[in-house]
Specification:
single chain, alpha/beta, Arc Repressor Mutant, subunit A, eight-stranded mixed beta sheet, two-stranded antiparallel ribbon
């Protein structure tokens, strides 16, 4: 039995007349009659009783019509889902996240993507830089998000956005009274740096900036992430430089101030990474959304920066 038999049978059953069914199917009556006869022979039952008024379904025919419609519906759904999957509109997207971007950039990007592709299931995994690369190679994730990535032969990097640096300061610190902090003043401040772990990292960037400004940083603590770093600032351990995203972390006793005179590079990149050989339609659709997001972020970055207080 092929799908054509089902289509022909449904037409005859719904029209109740071979002639009208043939017109609907854009074929002549004799081949349609032969198809129905072949279907009855294959099933071993009589589906229609021929009457002067047309084709009257038997009890077996009525039951088969219900099943045929179910099969047609399943086939239509399968066709639509397959087409949507081929367009990157259906499936699962496993994403690895790490760092301060989860406080702002990543949620905004994922929300924009989810609004355009609501039938794609997003599954988040917390992984550091090294873990992300290994998970990509093992095909356990599709995309990772991180900063300050070094080139890797089988991994492609796509820029998401570039963020300015801010200084997280305890309100009891005299620097908190300033509208903006000259970078040189960090020479006299105990610094909380992050993250520990895979290198190079944002920690290395801050140390390099200090050296470029002509001083060796006074490192108070090295911690795993921005959240811990800002929490230590709230407890009075020192100050910490953070990307813009971290300013959404509101803790009592912490303000975020613009910093002037930062040596280059004065901004930090956030990128997504993926396997270079991945041709998944879902990944392609996600990267399109990343590029749209980056364009919007670049336009917003042209606006004035503001001081952020809780």
């Amino acid at each position: 039995m092929d799908l054509r038999h089902l289509r022909y049978f449904i037409a005859v059953a719904e029209e109740g007349n071979i002639g009208r069914a043939a017109t609907r199917l854009h074929i002549s009556q004799p081949p349609l009659t032969r198809q129905i006869q072949q279907l009855e022979a294959e099933l071993g039952v009589t589906l229609f009783i021929r009457t002067p008024r047309g084709m009257e379904m038997t009890e077996a025919g009525a039951l088969f019509l219900e099943e045929a419609r179910n099969i047609r519906s399943i086939l239509e759904q399968a066709t639509e889902r397959t087409q949507r999957a081929g367009q990157g509109k259906l499936g699962r997207l496993d994403i690895a996240i790490f760092g301060s971007a989860i406080l702002d950039v990543i949620p905004k990007l994922l929300l924009a993507y989810k609004e355009r592709f609501p039938d794609v299931k997003i599954v988040l995994h917390t992984m550091n830089k090294h873990e992300q690369v290994e998970a990509l190679r093992q095909r356990r994730i599709t995309v990772g998000f991180n900063r300050l990535l070094t080139p890797i032969a089988d991994i492609t990097e796509e820029l998401v956005t570039t963020e300015a640096l801010r200084l997280a300061v305890n309100t009891a610190n005299p620097l908190a009274a300033l509208d903006e902090v000259p970078f040189s003043k960090l020479a006299d401040q105990p610094l909380v740096l992050f993250p520990t772990g895979a290198r190079p990292s944002f920690l290395d960037t801050v140390v390099s900036l200090c050296q470029s400004a002509g001083f060796v940083p006074q490192i108070s603590q090295e911690v795993g992430d921005a959240v811990t770093g800002v929490a230590l600032v709230a407890s009075g351990f020192g100050v910490t430089l953070v990307p813009d995203s971290a300013c959404n972390l509101t803790l009592p006793g912490v303000v975020y101030l613009p910093v002037t005179g930062i040596p280059e590079p004065s901004r930090v990149d956030l990128s997504c990474i993926y396997r270079s050989d991945n041709r998944s339609p879902i990944l392609a659709a996600f990267l399109q959304e990343v590029r749209r997001f980056r364009t919007r972020a670049e336009l917003e970055a042209e606006g004035p920066s503001t001081r952020s207080r809780p």
